[in-house]
Amino acid sequence: MFDHFGDLQVHGVGDEGLYHDDTRYLAYQELTIDGVRPLFLGSSIKDNNSLLIIELMNPDLARDERVLVAKGTVHILRAKLLWRGACYEHLRVTNHGREAFEADVALHFAADFSDLFEVRGMSRPQRGERLESVVDASTVQLRYRGLDGRLRTTQLRFEPEPSVLDEREARFCIRLQPGHEVHLYCTVSCERDDAAGIDSAGAGNYDQALRLAQAERGRMAGMRCQIETSNPLVNLWLDRSSSDLTMLTTTLASGPYPYAGVPWYSTTFGRDGILTARAMLWTDPSIARGVLGFLAATQATEREPERDAEPGKILHEARRCEMAATGEIPFGRYYGSVDSTPLFVALAGAYYQRTGDLAFIRSIWPNVVAALEWIDRDGDIDRDGFVEYARRSREGLVQQGWKDSQDSVFHADGTLAQAPIALCEVQGYVYEAKLLAAELAHHLGDDAMATRLRFAAADLKRNFAQQFWCDDLGSYAIALDGAKQPCRVAASNAGHALWSGIATPQHARQIVDLLMSERFFSGWGIRTIARGEPRYNPMSYHNGSIWPHDNAIIAAGMARYGHTKDAMRILGGMFDSSLYFDHYRLPELFCGFPRRPGEGPTLYPVACSPQAWAAAAVFGVLQACLGLNFEPVKPKVAMTAPHLPEFIQWMRISRLNVREHSLDVMLQRYRNNVGVEVTQRSGALDVVVELQ
User: Fold this and answer.
1) Residue pLDDT, tens place only, 578-588
2) Quick one: which H or E segment has residue 275?
3) What is the pTM of this model?
């Protein structure tokens, strides 16, 4: 998290810093020329997020009140690359004057090794030990031994050797002739004594790291189908979203995993990873496979109340920071999500529908079965057929759905619901999970299990309609509380019931009308809570704000029930809002104020940006609007009643892969329908388009 000069300027409370594994390895870095900060010209991020580029120039450089180098004589370009646990920086200093000049170019630095949760405001009664720094001719090691016993080291390596180097600064005394330039390099590596250092990754200097990073980004981009439209602004949104997902995705032993978001959630989250993978499944199934592999490997096997862990439960989040290791926070491996387990099962089923990869499904089938057993055992605390939650951990989350603010589940009078709480959307996730698991069981030869799961899903759908529907709301209650009383609050949660398919068609129509009314739809998107509800606040985190991923799920649910034109209105609001955000990047959330002529949406001040499921949202909505589905065994690509919004005249989808087959298609919008043309086909891949 750099400022626009490329520096780190943490004064007291601040979130700037170079982070690794939720630890701030560098809290201060500042570039000076002859002891003063250069003047700012501009800074930008490369379109593929690979580099931060900063351009600076010198102020008047004076000695003894005499200007020796006039302002604007020296140009300084800084390029910063993040790659495999290190920040690589290239400094190019150019003399555009007519005379030679001498100056000191210095990088000042300091490390505080603050835990991310300290940066977020948590106080600690005790911290670890700062060790003596190690300095040689070209490197500095700033060291800290935490309360967890781990040695953390910030190593700064400079090239060429600085003229002066100590534990606070590296100074280069340069002399440049007119038109000449000098190149300086600084590599800041973040190391821990139980992890491999950067040298083992094979990226010893800036140029090598840049080549490796670009090759890896190209490889990841090549695995996804490419989407281009008639609207250049839509293309910018799509390209930014794809680049952000590439940047957030880390290759683990189990495969690629999209970390949730920057700066607070740059780690593995179960729910976020699953929903991101689900939205990206049609463009890049490898993400889903990586997510499923990691979550299967980290599935809880024991009952641990302090981590809200129970056998079969799927991870909420994992942290590797000091406070997690010492138990000061419970998030080393924390399982306080009521929904990640059914979402995991459903992702496994959706992955099979997209890829036909039965061998992989067979490898994680014991994990799927364990997750289903958790749903029926620990997930259903009171055996009423609904999955509910109640916190076991002293320090864990009170609310354990995706709206996990403490005040996010309440009654019509504003009083908070008491646990155990059965959320509306979670029942839908369980419904879909059981149907998709039934399909997997059938393909794996267990038809008896498949039948049981289908009957269980049908029972759940019937009971859900009876217990959750509220005629006075025209929607489902947000939840049932511990006394089985419905929380009669109009909330976006009901839209997730459309996505999962648990809603009846009659209820779906009423929910769509409600969500597209002015109480919910701001013009930019659907609010989490309807205007007029007792805890409604357009500036709150979960009670009136707008979340892109929430809107994408709702839009997909609307299209599922045939309300694709309403889904396109949501897509239109998302697109319009993207035009007002930096780099066309949708943030984690923004405020829910009504759309006003000539004004953009109001930012939420501490929203993560980029955020994985916000970046993936556009791909999920596009699939829904195109009615795009796959049958990999046949193999076949199907589009049911495809739609394009008015701001997209045509769309080209290239390298749409189904197993070993590939397809390029062109979609053209006409007055009453969308034409689909196959422009290239590799292999025996059928394409079926159903117009309604």
Assistant:
1) 999 999 999 99
2) helix 270-280
3) 0.93
